[in-house]
TrEMBL record:
One of its GO terms (biological process) is GDP-mannose biosynthetic process. Transmembrane segments: none annotated. This is mannose-1-phosphate guanylyltransferase. Residues 319-367 form the MannoseP isomerase/GMP-like beta-helix domain. Residues 372-485 form the Mannose-6-phosphate isomerase type II C-terminal domain. Residues 24-306 form the Nucleotidyl transferase domain. It catalyses: alpha-D-mannose 1-phosphate + GTP + H(+) = GDP-alpha-D-mannose + diphosphate. It is an enzyme of class 2 (transferase).
Length: 490
């Protein structure tokens, strides 16, 4: 098969012998806790612009679109569905198919559900599976690697990408490479999958030369993946079939059956298939790949100054070396240190040594144990209509800034424990208050007494910004009784 240039591939689909298209499948279910305080369950790392002006999800989807015109399949959890749909729209990817997981069940059920979706119309389709939160600094090298993987997949193999290691990394699993496959250039058998090693084992793997980092990126035919799942993880596949059969449309999403999906075992594709099947192959590749799994990994792949420092946002770095300093809001200054990570958000600050970057997960675990909201949520909370952020909070009052995008509206709702006062500071609000509809303009306000049925919407062409003052005995977000909702939320 002749090697095509990336420009050529942008103009036509990567050829397959069957004539089927290559369908990108992007998994976006992780929470990225080792990149706390930026990455949290409510807004995980794949949704952040960590390496460019685009988020990791957008970078992944655009990378796929360069090599195949097929609409991508995105598998994500329900909480992030509107964020993901909006980010894809911003990136110019309008025709994606988004499958919603009711709960996280690791990668194997998500992949199997995507395979069932594609197989409905084209069981011979070649699926290109990738995580939404990985970086690839050498995308040009992907063309040849993907061609080899597709050729192996067309012969019925489940093909993974093994990344050539550049250091004795203990944070990745490894693949031991076997012999070359006949008649498929660049594809090899797999001797074994290895768990994340200790430092000594990682050194041995690097010296041996026949071990690769396990990227978690696969290429396979839809029917082959289904058959492999039925053979090696039949209980998982049966559960996925039941959840898929019970799926229902929800706006422009496909929601898998909740009760059925919750009964599926939690298992990765590595444990379900890769470590059990004799039908696995690997393509060794040097793609500048990183799973962006820690602040140290992000420092490693980010552009640096002459002293090895990475500075992002309003930061000052004086007489420091090999540091990663990031601030999303406040001026953050470091001096006289080496190899540290400093990350400041509007509600938390992290300081750690780069060598201890993996320990950030322990901090998140402690925050969860202490039931601190900073473990999972940011001060800015995104909703399908826009976002809100708390400015001041006390026992009996809270002040928020609310931004509603043009044409969007909040749910029709009421509260049992609080009253609200809205002051419009930008744009125009159309407010429903019981039986009345009131147009509230900039520098005008409206009062919503406790128990009042109300709704806010933005009928204008620019974002609506308002200040909300809540007063009452209980100010939690669960004191919302939704009477009607455009976005089908409970």
């Amino acid at each position: 098969m002749a090697i095509l240039t990336e420009q050529h591939l942008a103009e036509q689909d990567l050829p397959t012998k069957s004539g089927s298209m290559i369908v990108p499948v992007i998994l976006s279910g992780g929470s990225g806790t080792r990149l706390w305080p930026m990455s949290r369950a409510s807004f995980p790392k794949q949704l952040w612009p960590l390496l460019s002006e685009k988020s990791l999800l957008q970078e992944t989807a655009l990378r796929a679109r360069k090599l195949t015109p097929a609409a991508p399949v995105i598998v994500c959890n329900e909480e992030h569905r509107f964020l993901i749909a909006e980010q894809l729209r911003e990136a110019g990817i309008e025709s994606s198919r988004i499958l919603l997981e009711p709960v996280g069940r690791n990668s194997a059920p998500a992949i199997a559900a995507a395979a069932l979706l594609v197989a409905e119309t084209d069981p011979d389709a070649v699926l290109w599976l990738m995580a939404a939160d990985a970086a690839m600094l050498k995308p040009d090298a992907l063309v040849a690697a993907l061609q080899s993987a597709v050729a192996g997949a067309e012969q019925g193999k489940v093909v993974t990408f093994g990344m050539k290691p550049t250091r004795p990394e203990t944070g990745y699993g490894y693949i031991e490479v076997g012999s070359a496959l006949p008649d498929v250039e660049g594809v090899f058998s797999v001797r074994a999958f290895r768990e994340k090693p200790d430092a000594k084992q990682a050194e041995e793997f690097l010296k041996a030369g026949d071990y690769l980092w396990n990227s978690g990126m696969f290429v396979f035919r839809a029917d082959v993946l289904i058959r492999e799942m039925e053979e090696h993880a039949p209980d998982v596949m049966a559960g996925v079939r039941a959840a898929y059969a019970a799926r229902r449309g929800d706006l422009f999403f496909q929601r898998l059956g909740g009760e059925e999906f919750r009964r599926i075992p939690d298992i990765s594709i590595d444990y379900a298939i890769a470590e059990r099947s004799s039908n696995i192959a690997v393509v060794p590749a040097d793609l500048g790949w990183s799973d962006v799994g820690s602040w140290d990994a992000l420092w490693d792949i980010s552009p640096k100054d002459a002293d090895g420092n990475v500075g992002i946002g309003d930061v000052l770095i004086e007489d420091a070396k090999n540091c990663y300093v990031r601030s999303d809001k406040y001026l953050t200054a470091v001096a006289g240190v080496e190899g540290v990570v400093v990350v400041a958000t509007d509600d938390a600050v992290l300081v750690t040594h780069r060598d201890r970057a993996q320990d950030v997960k322990k901090i998140v675990d402690r925050l969860k144990k202490e039931k601190r909201p900073e473990a999972a949520t940011h001060n800015r909370c995104y909703r399908p209509w826009g976002f809100y952020e708390s400015l001041i909070q006390n026992d009996r009052f809270q002040v928020k800034r609310i931004v509603v995008q043009p044409g969007e509206k909040l749910s029709l709702q009421k509260h049992f424990h609080r009253a609200e006062h809205w002051v419009v500071v930008g744009g125009v609000a159309l407010v429903t208050r019981d039986d009345d509809k009131v147009l509230v303009r900039e520098n005008e306000s409206i009062y919503l007494p406790l128990g009042c049925i109300h709704r806010m919407e933005n009928p204008g062409k620019i974002p609506l910004t308002l200040i909300e003052v809540q007063t009452g005995s209980y100010l939690g977000e669960d004191d919302i009784v939704r009477i009607e909702d455009t976005y089908n939320r409970a």
